[in-house]
Amino acid sequence: MRAMALLGDDSRLTAVERADPVPGPGEVALKVSACGVCRTDLHIADGDLPRLRPGIVPGHEIVGTVAALGAGVTALRLGERVGVPWLGGVCGVCPYCAEGAENLCDAPVFTGWTRDGGYAEACTADARFCVKLPEALEDAVAAPLLCAGLIGFRAWRMAAAARPVKRLGLYGFGAAAHLLTQLAVHEGQRVHAFTKPGDAAGQTFARRLGCVWAGGADEMPPEMLDAAILFAPAGELVPRALKAVRKGGTVVCGGIHMSDIPSFPYADLWGERRIVSVANLTREDAALYLPRAAAAGVRPTVTRYALADANRALADLSDGRIEGAGVLVMS
């Protein structure tokens, strides 16, 4: 099979030929049809996240069909279409797993980071962590929902954990934000989009998706927000977002990596404002989100790339040239 792997310390992916993967006990082998291109893949390639496995194949928004079943797998069948998200396995015995917080597992497995992912024609996955996909969504459209959609959904639920949210701010208008906007607007929220200063195209895109306001991340919104979610990995946006949320409001940091948060006056946090982070996701998130997103008409804007063009896809993501989400589509 063909795959794109990170070899040595090189931040560029290298095309490799490898044997077709064989599923172990409890695993399935998948023929990959599409794999989303996520900012986390970029963090791994750039070294923001450490290389935990030599020659890793990135990719954790995988859509594929079951090509082989490992011993003991009964919940999936040959030829079935499934999705494989970021969380690829947990230990099941640590205190976090015991309390139902598998996203905080002390010994997790991550697709495309600690086990090979979907920048390939085939891969293996733990059958318990494969998710069923809405039939209405074609492969390339379903792929971004498996991380950008899921992490946005988890952040969105966390934003409303303390108080109801009617006015929502989204900092960084990439794959996650453009998917969450559609769900939030469908739910009747007033969404405010914050892009890089001067990104007129991004702001137009946000308004086209239903945002009531779109401006630069250096601007204040026209009304105080009930909550703000940061998808941009820029710590300096946290104090700005705190100034934009009302008393009792929540600022959610939605990325796995973020630059340092600078100091800020305690007065900006006072008034029972909260700063919280989102860590990974759970199988329950997928079970709740995917049918809800499909019913709400959530559809990503997708830029398609061939597997061999994975480096170009990551470069386009890094430089902000992708409107919506990038997806590798296998031939």
Structure write-up:
- The protein folds into two domains: 2-146 and 281-329, Medium-chain alcohol dehydrogenases, catalytic domain (Quinone Oxidoreductase, Chain A, domain 1); 149-277, Rossmann fold, CATH 3.40.50.720.
- The protein is globular.
- By secondary structure, the chain is an alpha/beta fold.
- A hairpin with a 6-residue loop joins strand 1 and strand 2 (13-17).
- The protein has ten helices and 17 strands.
How many domains, as an integer? 2
Query: Major sheet, described briefly?
Result: 7 strands, mixed
> What sequence of helices (H) and strands (E) makes up the elements?
EEEHEEEHEEEHHEHEHEEHEHEHEHE
The CATH homologous superfamily name of the largest domain equals Medium-chain alcohol dehydrogenases, catalytic domain
User: Unreliable stretches, pLDDT < 50, 5 or more residues?
Assistant: none
Q: Report how far apart the termini are.
A: 12 Å
Class inferred from helices and paired strands: alpha/beta
Task: Average the pLDDT over all residues and give the rounded result.
Answer: 97
Assembly level: single chain
What's the CATH class label of the largest domain? Alpha Beta
| Helix content bin | 25-40%
Strand percentage lies at 25-35%
Approximate shape: globular
Compute the gyration radius: what is it? 19 Å
In DSSP terms, counting alpha (H) and pi (I) runs of 4 or more, how many helices?
A: 10
Number of strands: 17
Find the CATH topology of the largest domain.
Answer: Quinone Oxidoreductase, Chain A, domain 1
CATH-level-2 architecture of the largest domain: Alpha-Beta Complex
